[in-house]
């Protein structure tokens, strides 16, 4: 029992708690737990919700951590354009509301593009989503995407690409070391 209270164990527990808070903190307004982020009353969030972050160089809006949709680009799922949506999901302290009228093909869905209903998890075809009537008149579809946000998005994408490249390089180096060791001839003196 004494080993449990040593400084290393307490540090490990502290780090796990911090990581868990960061992981469970993120949500889009459609899938937040009751009370919303930071225990805000859900009524105040619905009265004046914050718009979700722009993605795809301002051509789309984040509908979830892996979904970027826009009237001119359709919906991009798990692509490099959705990296900013992952950032929004993890680092945002308050929920956001994507544009579009509510649709019923998916739970908590909103019309993302013509004939497409999306929620933070996935999209399905929905003929009730009509681009000309629903999306064009929606205020959320015309949100200003300023240069600072574009610059931040580009920096984030570059940083993520560098991180991915480093990870791939590290994996290649590790696999080549393993391959070299496995093909090395064994001699009697080797232990």
Automatic annotation (TrEMBL):
<protein>
    <submittedName>
        <fullName>Uncharacterized protein</fullName>
    </submittedName>
</protein>
<feature type="region of interest" description="Disordered">
    <location>
        <begin position="169"/>
        <end position="191"/>
    </location>
</feature>
<dbReference type="GO" id="GO:0030141">
    <property type="term" value="C:secretory granule"/>
</dbReference>
<dbReference type="InterPro" id="IPR000981">
    <property type="entry name" value="Neurhyp_horm"/>
</dbReference>
<dbReference type="Pfam" id="PF00184">
    <property type="entry name" value="Hormone_5"/>
</dbReference>
<keyword id="KW-0732">Signal</keyword>
<keyword id="KW-0472">Membrane</keyword>
<keyword id="KW-0812">Transmembrane</keyword>
<dbReference type="GO" id="GO:0005185">
    <property type="term" value="F:neurohypophyseal hormone activity"/>
</dbReference>
<dbReference type="InterPro" id="IPR022423">
    <property type="entry name" value="Neurohypophysial_hormone_CS"/>
</dbReference>
<keyword id="KW-1133">Transmembrane helix</keyword>
<dbReference type="InterPro" id="IPR036387">
    <property type="entry name" value="Neurhyp_horm_dom_sf"/>
</dbReference>
<feature type="transmembrane region" description="Helical">
    <location>
        <begin position="12"/>
        <end position="30"/>
    </location>
</feature>
<comment type="similarity">
    <text>Belongs to the vasopressin/oxytocin family.</text>
</comment>
<dbReference type="GO" id="GO:0005615">
    <property type="term" value="C:extracellular space"/>
</dbReference>
<feature type="compositionally biased region" description="Basic and acidic residues">
    <location>
        <begin position="175"/>
        <end position="191"/>
    </location>
</feature>
<keyword id="KW-1015">Disulfide bond</keyword>
């Amino acid at each position: 029992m004494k080993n449990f209270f040593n400084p290393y164990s307490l540090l490990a527990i502290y780090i796990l708690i911090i990581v868990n808070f960061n992981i469970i903190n993120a949500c889009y307004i459609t899938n937040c737990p009751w009370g919303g982020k930071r225990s805000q009353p859900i009524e105040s969030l619905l009265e004046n919700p914050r718009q979700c972050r722009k993605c795809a160089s301002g051509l789309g809006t984040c509908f979830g951590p892996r979904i970027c949709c826009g009237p001119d680009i359709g919906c991009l799922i798990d692509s490099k354009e959705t990296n900013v949506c992952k950032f929004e999901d993890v680092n945002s302290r308050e929920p956001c509301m994507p544009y579009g009228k509510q649709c019923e093909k998916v739970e908590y869905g909103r019309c993302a593009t013509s004939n497409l209903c999306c929620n933070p998890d996935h999209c399905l075809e929905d003929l009730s989503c009509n681009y000309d009537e629903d999306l064009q008149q929606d205020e959320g579809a015309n949100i200003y995407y300023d240069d600072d946000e574009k610059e931040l998005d580009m920096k984030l994408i570059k940083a993520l690409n560098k991180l991915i490249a480093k990870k791939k390089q590290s994996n290649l180096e590790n696999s080549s070391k393993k391959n070299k060791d496995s093909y090395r001839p064994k001699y009697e003196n080797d232990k």
